[in-house]
Amino acid sequence: MISAYITCKDEKQAVKISRHLLKKRLIACSNIFPIKSMYWWNKKIVDDNEIVILAKTIDKNFEKIKKEVKKIHSYEIPCILKFNIESGKEYEGWVKKETR
Fold first, then answer.
1. C-alpha to C-alpha distance for 55 and 67, rounded to whole angstroms
2. Strand (E) or helix (H) holding 71
3. Secondary element (H or E) of residue 11
4. Cα–Cα distances in angstroms (integers) from residue 40 to residues 8, 21, 94, in the given order
5. Close Cβ partners of 98 (under 8 Å, ≥ 6 residues apart)
6. What is the mean pLDDT of residues 18-24?
7. Residue (of 24, 15, 12, 13) closest to 65 by Cα position
């Protein structure tokens, strides 16, 4: 099982992306959190508020998730990361059941 970590410009975009991935059955669950981000962009350090999506899914869906997010994300280079995660057998079974 994996968690896809996706940063977004605001909550509206995070909800839109989460719903899109849920409807396509690429993720089983999405948690949305406000975060403070600092990064280099266009030769400047940016200090910004963003929203992060933590989406639980199966490993085989990660490439499809990246493709779908890039279609609708507003960022030129969206942050889409994969973390391997472990859970209880029941939760992992639920994630597998809810994704395709």
1. 15
2. helix 62-72
3. helix 11-23
4. 16, 28, 38
5. 25, 28, 29
6. 98
7. 24
**pTM: predicted TM-score of the whole model, two decimal places:** 0.95
Query: Mean pLDDT of all residues in the chain?
Result: 97
67 C-beta neighbours (distance < 10 Å), count:
11
Residue 77: in which H helix or E strand, if any? none
The answer to whether the beta carbons of residues 1 and 87 sit under 8 Å apart is yes
> Across the beta sheet with 80-84, what order do the strands follow?
29-41, 44-57, 2-8, 80-84
Taking the mean position of all CA atoms in its chain, how far away is CA 58?
Answer: 13
pLDDT one-digit tens code per residue, 27-77: 999 999 999 999 999 999 999 999 999 999 999 999 999 999 999 999 999
Domains assigned to the chain = 2-98 (3.30.70.120)
